[in-house]
Design a protein that fits this description.
Elements lengths: L1 H28 L6 H18 L4 H23 L4 H21 L1 H4 L11 E3 L2 E3 L2 H23 L2 H11 L1 H6 L4 H27 L9 H14 L6 H17 L9 H19 L12
Antiparallel strand pairs: 1-2
Length: 291
């Protein structure tokens, strides 16, 4: 039971990192992406390659994952963010579909459908971290660091620029703000920090494959942000905790066939998001919309 609880803590922390980093561009800049799982996956595959071929130290795996995700996000953001927001949504969706194909076919790097096996456990200053209880400390510390970095950015002049762009791009531009550049930097930061979750995920499970990085995963992370509350500090974490605990809660109902649990989860996600958009658009943590 103890191992099960710590396993949940690890998964919640990892997905909370994803939700917090997506919220950085969704909640503060108004940039909606359907490709967050791509950077999650690229971070996982890159860190796995480094761990297997160089060294499993997190001082190598995490920076390598962040650099790979930042480079890919730059290729997406530079052309897509020079136009209106809906074009970025379409471009991110295209990247997500393309990435799944590449993850499935690039067998020398990703292992194809079979995935990558026997990923070494995370190495922290020469100490291997493989027990769920010990890894929970690492994942929670990583979440706290990511939250602190984003919080510092949000409350800096850069964060004020993001909120100005969120409110009105044309008004921000009229005050001399380089809107495409600010949006591009925010996407690169979001993607690089999302790769931290990928690196943790790979070393924790010691096995990854493409099924963890599909469009469903991107939609799940977006649901966490929306349900918890966009543009809030605690909202993404609350959303991640709720949606990661949901499968465990559903599994307690013995009368439900195991094969139907996944479909029931999707129904609950969709219904929850619909009800929140109607009755509480700001999410669970966000402020109630004024009548």
């Amino acid at each position: 039971m103890e191992a099960y609880i710590f396993n949940l803590v690890n998964l919640i922390a990892i997905y909370a990192i994803l939700a917090v980093t997506l919220n950085f561009i969704m909640g503060y800049a108004g940039i909606y992406s359907l490709a967050h799982a791509v950077f999650f996956g690229l971070g996982a595959y890159t860190s796995a390659w480094v761990a297997q071929n160089v060294h499993p130290s997190i001082l190598l795996t995490i920076p390598a994952a962040m650099m790979a995700a930042a480079a890919l996000s730059l290729l997406l953001a530079l052309p897509a963010l020079r136009v209106r927001g809906e074009y970025f949504v379409a471009a991110s969706l295209g990247l997500q579909v393309l990435a799944v194909t590449i993850f499935s076919e690039w067998k020398s790097f990703t292992g194809g459908i079979g995935g990558v096996l026997a990923i070494p456990p995370a190495n922290v200053f020469g100490i291997e971290v493989f027990k769920p209880a010990h890894f929970a400390i690492l994942s929670v510390v990583a979440l706290v660091i990511v939250m602190a970095l984003i919080n510092a950015l949000v409350h800096s002049s850069f964060g004020r620029n993001l909120r100005a762009i969120h409110d009105s791009e044309s008004a921000a531009a009229s005050f001399g703000k380089n809107v495409p550049m600010i949006k591009t930097i925010s996407v690169v930061i979001s993607a690089a920090l999302a790769a931290v979750a990928g690196a943790l995920y790979a070393s924790y499970l010691s096995f990854i494959n493409v099924e963890s990085f599909t469009l469903d995963a991107s939609v799940l992370v977006m649901a966490m942000v929306i349900i918890g509350g966009t543009g809030t500090v605690a909202g993404p974490i609350v959303g991640a905790a709720l949606l990661m605990l949901l499968p465990s809660l559903i599994s307690w109902f013995d009368f439900l066939p195991q094969t139907e649990i996944g479909a029931l989860q999707q129904i609950i996600y969709g219904l929850g998001m619909t009800l929140l958009m109607i009755f509480r658009p700001g999410g669970i943590v966000g402020r109630r919309a004024k009548a």
